[in-house]
Design brief:
Rossmann fold; three-stranded antiparallel sheet; 32% helix
């Protein structure tokens, strides 16, 4: 105990030393001198020179966060970020949050970012979210990042994958070998059964920074959908559930990647603020509005006929949405000057603007043709009225020298000058050539939810899925944000629409679904997309009906292609799943199986449990379920890759070979 206490004291001393060191850089603190954790993490990910110098020049931080390899000193930025995230450093436990969901201003108690953030119970917890059946109610465990850091690290560690199958037009094969490009990236289409949070973390080693598009259609938390967790904290539970998954989703996106999150009015506002916090407010692109139906005859007041796809970029500066081939509004380009031959016609926009994002560095005077000085909003002197120039001083000087600015004033010459910038047809405001196309619109019309129902009925003979999305909706999103060969990810795969459309459009895809119906719906749907025949020993057993519906005709889809299906290997999670649906008839059998095969908490004696079975029988079913779940070791919910050789996990050689191939080891 004394040794543990001394170790704790040493860590606290280093924390204080590191905190004071980081405070010497102004960009890491707010106006009150409080460290801004997100700013520090961003600087680390960008290998900020000033941060690295600061850490290198301190003996203790150099020893802690740098590795010596041959004659080189390497900054271990991942270790540094993990340390910054450790809640023993800059404590911001969920106990600091109120019991209600709402907005707050980041301050000494919430040291995340110097901005408006969303506050809700369990915000700094991880919700495994292990529901595997639509009608299943689960009392989930919230792993707190302070009290259960080890549990979280093990929970999110890479998992053993198992039960792999390869689907082609020739049939299904258990012989699976992953193909890779010259950079070592897996090029196979993947469909994964398992907890989507754990699956996303499992994918990081192969796909971090490589996914061009993430589209998800998660439960909307309406009370009537499949989100069946923790009734007492349903709203905050949903936000925790979304936050955990969006954070790792961002890591998987490429620098020019985007994410679309489908939602309705129920959680849209809260989700928007949450995504501001995770992706950055500046990375918000727009709300794509989908008119899903033309009317609602049963509406009591106002018929709600739309849903949203909230669109964020990983890095808006790198964003390049696919060009639209339709005509653009050429009528705007009516003005001409001496540069018409090289720059084309132009139109003008005001250079100044007013708004919430005021910056004093953009509030300055510009010299006008008559020698007078003009400030934003037509002012003749400096005033902080919220108005600023859209461009910096250097860019404006360049624009004046290269005739990209136009000065206008009223005919009576009594008012000040209006400073405008020219939008040329053939070049941008950096004098780079551009290819004009029609602007993308954030309104999707003519694609109805009834189309999706018809597609499902045509594929399966009945409407076996409650809320599918139409293929044309996904087609528009995939067309907008990807090119052929780009990777598309959907970790709420549902009926499989995203993968079906991506397959028909020549995109690589990854679909994740944890519900048990994945093989009966999504996998079978993809078999129909391929147009597969099922054979055994060369003999035709079954011919899969080809899916020629949805977007098949518009993209001339003729079938073909392949995908690999695999599962995350469960350990204690298997028993938790079974306990959640246990009955009086089979609970005692589960009791024996858990004692014999499960990984129990270190302080639980299996022999003693076997002797006390009679006492266990006196409990109610709910008490029996709760007790058995409580004795299961939560560090062993799934089989961790790092323990694949542990004899207790009973991983066979074929599965070990599969994992070596997948993880590239």
């Amino acid at each position: 105990m004394q040794f543990i206490f001394l170790e704790y004291q040493t860590k606290m001393k280093f924390n204080e030393q590191l905190e004071q060191l980081l405070k010497t850089l102004d960009k890491f603190t707010d106006k009150e001198g409080v460290l801004l954790k997100q700013n520090i993490k961003d600087a680390s990910e960008k290998f900020d020179t000033n941060l690295i110098k600061l850490l290198l020049n301190d003996k203790d931080t150099k020893e802690h966060f740098f590795d010596e390899i041959d004659n080189a000193t390497i900054f271990n930025y991942r270790k540094f970020i993990d340390y910054i995230d450790d809640k023993d450093f800059l404590i911001d436990s969920y106990t600091k949050f109120s019991n209600k969901v709402g907005l707050t201003i980041s301050n000494k108690h919430i040291q995340q970012i110097n901005d408006v953030v969303l506050s809700f119970p369990f915000k700094d917890c991880v919700l495994e979210g292990g529901q595997s059946k639509d009608d299943e109610k689960r009392k989930e465990i919230f792993f707190n990042e302070v009290l259960a850091k080890d549990e979280i690290n093990r929970l999110l560690d890479k998992k053993v994958i198992t039960s792999a199958k390869k689907y082609t037009q020739k049939g299904v094969s258990a012989k699976v070998q992953f193909t890779r490009d010259k950079n070592g990236t897996i090029k196979d289409n993947l469909i994964i059964k398992g907890n989507n949070l754990l699956a996303l973390h499992t994918l990081k080693s192969n796909f971090a920074g490589k996914v061009k598009l993430i589209y998800i259609d998660p439960p909307y938390n309406t009370g009537n959908d499949s989100f069946n967790y923790n009734d007492n904290f349903n709203h905050s539970t949903w936000l925790t559930f979304m936050k955990n998954r969006l954070e790792v989703a961002r890591e998987l996106l490429s620098e020019d990647g985007v994410i679309f999150v489908q939602c309705d009015d129920n959680e849209q506002a809260y989700l928007k603020v949450l995504m501001d916090e995770i992706f950055g407010r500046d990375e918000f692109v727009c709300n794509m509005i989908w008119e899903k139906k033309t009317g609602a005859s049963d509406a009591k007041e106002i018929a709600v006929i739309t849903e949203f796809s909230i669109l964020y970029a990983k890095n808006k500066n790198s964003l390049s949405l696919t060009k639209n081939t339709k005509s653009y509004d050429i009528n705007r380009y009516r003005l001409k000057d001496k540069y018409e031959k090289t720059r084309g016609a132009y139109y003008i926009d005001n250079l100044d603007r007013g708004g919430l994002q005021y910056s004093d560095s953009l509030n300055f005077g510009i010299k006008c043709p008559d020698g007078s000085i003009s400030f934003p909003n037509g002012r003749k002197s400096y005033v902080n009225d919220g108005w600023i120039w859209k461009w910096s001083k250097n860019k404006i000087l360049w624009a004046i020298e290269n005739n990209f600015l136009e000065f206008r004033r009223s005919k009576d010459k009594k008012s000040g000058w209006s400073v405008c910038y020219k939008n040329y047809l053939k070049v941008d405001n950096k004098n780079n050539p551009v290819s004009r196309s029609a602007p993308h619109k954030n309104l999707i019309q003519g694609v109805l939810n009834t189309h999706a129902s018809s597609e499902i009925i045509k594929i399966f003979g009945s409407k076996i899925f409650s809320h599918p999305k139409p293929e044309e909706l996904l087609q528009k999103i995939i067309e907008l944000s990807t090119q052929k060969g780009d990777i598309v990810l959907d970790y709420h795969l549902g009926s499989g629409t995203t993968c079906a459309v991506a397959h028909k459009m020549g995109r690589q895809y990854i679909g994740i679904e944890q519900m048990d119906y994945i093989e009966d719906i999504a996998v079978k749907r993809m078999q129909k997309v391929i147009g597969e025949t099922v054979k055994k020993d060369g003999e035709l057993l079954e011919s899969i009906e080809f899916d020629n519906g949805g977007i098949s005709k518009s993209v001339n889809w003729q079938g073909g292609g392949e995908f690999i299906y695999f599962e995350l290997a469960k350990y204690n999670q298997y028993f938790i799943d079974e306990l959640s649906i246990a009955t009086d008839k089979n609970i005692l059998k589960l009791y024996d199986e858990i004692i014999d095969k499960a990984f129990l908490n270190y302080d639980v004696e299996s022999e003693k449990l076997a002797q006390e079975k009679g006492e266990f029988k006196t409990l109610s079913l709910s008490e029996q379920q709760e007790f058995l779940i409580s004795i299961l070791n939560k560090n062993q919910l799934y089989k961790n890759l790092s323990e694949i050789d542990d004899k207790d996990l009973k991983v066979d050689e074929k599965t070990k070979t599969l994992n070596t191939d997948f993880y590239g080891k």
